[in-house]
């Protein structure tokens, strides 16, 4: 069974440029998460989807970040314009359903973003 | 808010036993998770506790005390491949954060030969 797929794996851009990350979750997983992980820190949730609905986006900096999950499968996270402080690893995860039980989250390999 | 605390670094030798502690303060509680993350890789699930007590899974065990807001991950018969960051994560109960995981900053474990 394929795991969570993310692309690109690495991205280097100059500040003020736009950038987009793509995620394909595990087949059949209704819940999709985007996390940001800064160096030496744990992942922090940016947004959580149940199917195509964003049910928890309180941590998403909406002035520059946007996300979508059309058709409730793949998802795209965009930053426009990027700032130096956005340099981090952006992780996508998926699970069957987000609220109870073990409901293990499976993480993708992440996209390492460097903003110069 | 959520507050999760775990040591930044630990070291141990091959074959030894190591215990990684995690304390937490959360508004409501609906489970505690441990994840392993090797450098440059994705976190992978290790264990889940929602009731008090010890959960054992091979060389790894995890303990939870809800009244103390405390958990530990116990790694036995350490191997070099166990060198990684170990992340403690708490899932609160209810409200707008239903389903969200709050992660600690991770404990970097180095296993020496």
Structure in words:
The complex is a heterodimer of chains A (116) and B (113). In chain A, 36% of the residues are buried. Chain A contains no helices and 11 strands. Chain A has strands at residues 5-7, 10-13, 19-24, 31-37, 44-50, 53-56, 65-68, 75-79, 88-95, 106-107, 111-115. Chain A has 116 residues and is mainly β. Helix content of chain B is 0%, strand content 53%. In chain B, strands 2, 4, 5, 9, 10 and 11 form a 6-stranded mixed sheet that branches. A 5-stranded antiparallel sheet of chain B has the order 1-3-8-7-6, with no helix packed on it. Chain B is globular. Chain A binds chain B through residues 4, 31, 40-45, 48, 55-56, 58, 91, 98-100, 102-110, and chain B through 4, 30-31, 41-45, 48, 87, 89, 96-101, 103-106.
Secondary structural class of chain A = mainly beta
Largest interface: A-B, 25 and 21 residues
Total E-strand runs of chain A: 11
Coarse shape of chain A? globular
For the biggest sheet of chain A, the summary is:
7 strands, mixed
Q: Can you summarize the main beta sheet of chain B?
A: 6 strands, mixed
Quaternary class: heterodimer
Give the C-alpha Rg of chain B: 14 Å
Spans of chain A of at least 5 consecutive residues whose pLDDT stays below 50 are: none
Shape, per Cα inertia axes of chain B:
globular
End-to-end distance of chain A: 37 Å
Radius of gyration of chain A: 13 Å
Reading the helices and strands of chain A in chain order gives EEEEEEEEEEE
**Helix proportion of residues of chain B, in percent?**
under 10%
Total of DSSP H or I helical runs spanning 4+ residues of chain B: 0
H/I helix tally of chain A: 0
Average pLDDT level of chain B? 93
| Strand-residue proportion of chain A | over 45%
Mean pLDDT of chain A: 92
């Amino acid at each position: 069974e394929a795991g969570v797929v993310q692309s690109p794996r690495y991205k280097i851009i100059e500040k003020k440029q736009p950038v987009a990350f793509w995620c394909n979750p595990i087949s059949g997983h209704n819940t999709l998460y985007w996390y940001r992980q800064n160096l030496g820190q744990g992942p922090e949730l940016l947004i959580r989807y149940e199917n195509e609905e964003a049910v928890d986006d309180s941590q998403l900096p909406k002035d520059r970040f946007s996300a979508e999950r059309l058709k409730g499968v793949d998802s795209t996270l965009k930053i426009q314009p990027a700032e130096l402080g956005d340099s981090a690893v952006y992780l996508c995860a998926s699970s069957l359903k987000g609220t109870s039980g073990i409901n293990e989250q499976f993480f993708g390999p992440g996209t390492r973003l460097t903003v110069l | 808010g959520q507050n999760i605390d775990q040591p930044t670094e630990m070291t141990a030798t091959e074959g030894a036993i190591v215990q990684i502690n995690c304390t937490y303060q959360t508004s409501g509680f609906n489970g505690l998770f441990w994840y392993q993350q090797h450098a440059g890789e994705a976190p992978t699930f290790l264990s889940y506790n929602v009731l008090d007590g010890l959960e054992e899974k091979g060389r790894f065990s995890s303990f939870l005390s809800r009244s103390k807001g405390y958990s530990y991950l116990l790694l036995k018969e350490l191997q070099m491949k166990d060198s990684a960051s170990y992340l403690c994560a708490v899932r609160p109960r209810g409200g707008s954060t239903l389903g969200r995981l709050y992660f600690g900053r991770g404990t970097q474990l180095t296993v020496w030969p």
